[in-house]
Write a structure and sequence with these properties.
Jelly Rolls, 16 strands, 7-stranded antiparallel beta sheet
């Protein structure tokens, strides 16, 4: 069953475990169950099945920015609310507000067979604005403490340009070692353009 948000020009579909996704008055809510995550350890075998976590994804066309304020009900290390990009089964990326391991932190994971894992900056409180952008075969991640001035986190490619242009993008919840994590996304906004500058705060 598709979920239509008035802020987005494309419908969203649930993938992975059930998250009881709901949308009301501009707020999208979801839930990750115990030990739910999407991560392929760089020390492990890429042929092992990746663990799974609930995702709500759609297919934007052309250049875009998807942004939202993300809030997570942290209960255990690595609980997170996530903006997620999916290109293929072993080609995907996460921009997270994560308890990493004991302070809320903007974190990223880019998976090409195996996952990398990098922390960006610590956040005061349990919410932050996150933004994912695409142009051609390139994606960019930004984060903001106020929704106005954006901090560049990383730029990267996934798959071929053709695969990237058909990427699924949206929302995810995770609780890798905990008993579950409630996440919410508000101030959701879609812009049909690549940012004017990646490192100038815009």
């Amino acid at each position: 069953m598709d979920l239509v948000l008035p802020e987005l020009p494309f419908p969203l579909r649930a993938y992975g475990p059930d998250a009881d996704w709901s949308y009301e008055r501009g707020v999208l809510n979801g839930w990750a169950g115990a030990r739910q995550d999407r991560f392929v350890p760089p020390t492990g075998d890429a042929l092992d099945p990746a663990s799974d976590a609930p995702r709500l994804l759609g297919a934007p066309e052309g250049d875009f920015q998807l942004l939202a304020r993300v809030k997570a009900g942290f209960g255990a290390a690595f609980d997170a609310g996530v903006l997620y990009v999916h290109v293929a089964e072993r080609e995907w990326a996460k921009l997270c507000l994560e308890l990493s391991p004991d302070r809320p932190t903007v974190c990223t994971v880019v998976t090409r067979g195996h996952s990398d894992d990098a922390n960006s900056f610590v956040v005061d409180g349990d919410s932050v604005w996150l933004r994912v952008s695409r142009t051609g075969g390139a994606f960019a991640f930004h984060a903001s403490t106020d929704g106005e001035k954006w901090t560049f986190v990383r730029i990267f490619s996934l798959g071929t340009t053709e695969q990237a242009s058909a990427a699924l993008v949206g929302f995810m919840a995770q609780s890798p070692v905990g008993e579950g994590c409630v996440v919410s996304f508000d101030r959701i906004e879609y812009r049909p353009a690549w940012p004017q500058g990646l490192r100038d705060g815009s």
